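A quick word before the example. In earlier lectures we treated sequence and structure as two separate objects. From today on, think of them as two lines of the same record. Here is Cytidylate kinase written that way.
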Amino acid sequence: MSTDVPVLTIDGPSGSGKGTVSRAVAQRLGWHFLDSGAIYRALAVAAARTGTALDDIAAIVRLAETMDLRFTADDPARILLDGVDISAEIPTESCGNAASRIAAHGPVRKALLEKQRAFRKPPGLVADGRDMGTVVFPDAPFKVFLTASAAVRAERRYKQLKEKGIDVNLQTLTQEIEERDRRDRERVEAPLVMAEGAVLVDSSDLTIEEAIAACLGAVRQ
Ligand code: DC
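And the structure line, produced from the sequence above:
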């Protein structure tokens, strides 16, 4: 890992606006972008495709070690798993839930650690996830914890999924998001917590542009 390359970590729960905001911040800084959630999601897709049970952790770890995962240079990047474009499967809630389940296991997280750290390349990296500032890039000079109220997060995810043509029910989605967040916050391994020294940004009442400005401010400070 080249520790002289600057990293801005943006951690937070789903629906906080992390994905949109982090991508835009990376673009404006001209830095690389790591969507770490997409790596956990791709592993969940790999499990489904190979018929691997989500609780067979040894098999999931083997998959994590052997899967060939590539992000194309398109914007947004397409995700290729062993050469197959799985971009359409990545954003669904069932994929997010499966990702959250396998992500609770230490050996799975360990197997994905270096894949994430490999994104740290000049001139810099914006890393989006749950444990970017605490575990993956603890030495990052810039850290943000981006959050929003549960109601706002559910509403945003609902709109996002609808726009992608994915059919969802707001009430079911709210329950699923709450359950996923609880699992991500309460797990023993790399739980979702605010990293020490992180700037807290509550995006509930912010426009995307204002949230982007707050994250850029953390780098310029
Ligand atoms: O950010 P996301 O919704 O795409 O992430 C999907 C799941 O992956 C999330 O619920 C928990 C897991 N995850 C994680 O444990 N650590 C990360 N750094 C990113 C995601």
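Notice the following. The first helix runs from residue 18 to 29. We will return to this example when we discuss secondary structure assignment.
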